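Much of our argument rests on the idea that a fold can be written as discrete symbols. The amino acid sequence and the backbone structure tokens for this protein are reproduced below:

___
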Amino acid sequence: MGTVENASDYVPTELRPQASTSPRTCWRPKTQDNPCNAWSHRCHIQSPSPNTDLLVGRTVAIKDNISVAGLPTTLGVPATLFSHGSYPVSDVDSSVVSRILNAGAIIKGTSTCESFCASPLSFTSASGLVHNPHLRNYTSGGSSSGSAVLVASHALKSKRSGAWGETVELAVGSDQAGSVRIPASYCGIYGLKPTFGLVPYTGAVSMTPMIDHLGPMGSTLEDVAILLEVMAGYDGFDPRMSPETPLPSQTTPYLSILSTLRHEISSSPRPGKDFRVGLLEESFSLARVSDQVRMTVTRTARDYFKAAGAAVVGVSVPMHLQGPAIWTAATRPSMSSHLCQGLPSGHLSYLPGHARLRWPPSQSTLDTLKANNPAVVNILLSELFARNMATQGLEAKAHRKVFELRGYYCGQGAAGPAHGCRD
């Protein structure tokens, strides 16, 4: 072990910093230039010779748990929680960053993320509150709070006067339990959690491999489609990918498909006549769902899809009610090992070597976490509880239950396909 400990680290050619039109420098924006606190660090990175023009000239922000060479990774936590007491600077470009640059985009910086990416709201980042651009002092959702705000601010800039600071057209977020979709919803933009394994997670800080996703965010469906087209595809490093993951050269042309669909819809008085839409009954009967929200969502969904000509039916998957318990048992027993200690999953993978946190946690660490984001304390204690109190093999059983639940979602019961649903 000492041989490896004392050896130089390895950075694959594919993850080395992409060439830039100017030296990579970064800075913390001034308060007046960052009115919603959506920026973590600013920069201007552009490839001098992109491979495609899919994103040429488009501006992009990268969530601050995704490696951008030359920029610090803060993970939304105080610098004192990192192993050297300061924010580590990445020496790699994550796979998605390399692809975005090679598509001609301009990366304008890293966006503020919530503490450890473990909050659906926007008050836990070490840099402070991230304000909703529609209404200051209200939450923008999380944990990809900064990414959503920067895109929403860009859309609002053309409609309202005000001090918006630098904004972007597109952004990348990460999503384990809603962290792209929630802030997109709160800020009035589009955010997509892609199919698991479609977009490489290489170079991003993991929460736990089974639920790690990187996803596109934009103010239009077209923006989300083209960014997904650029980001998707096998990279050779991410064990989350499967034989169903396409090579980058064979990625689905999402923008073209969307354009064709738009044309078909615009030329039809009842564009949904060939669709049958199911409303999952159990999803509206979970504990603590507001009656007002339940009625509003179901009524709006039914009215909208029926008006478009679609058939709307109720669908029942009773096992859906066990979903939260299965999710917890399948992830929490080892989540702090991945998120707080940076341990690999056991499958060959490339984790960013710079983002090392202090371990084991001290009383000072716990005090800091309690003050900033108590949910992380829960993550730490959940692993200790599972290790000392839960039945041996619980996490493995929960993973098996995931396959069972997936089968029911596919409409094939517990004998459904292990690899997922197919048409």
Remarks:
- Residues 8-390 form a domain with the Amidase signature (AS) enzymes fold (CATH 3.90.1300.10).
- The first helix runs from residue 2 to 6.
- The chain has a mean pLDDT of 95.
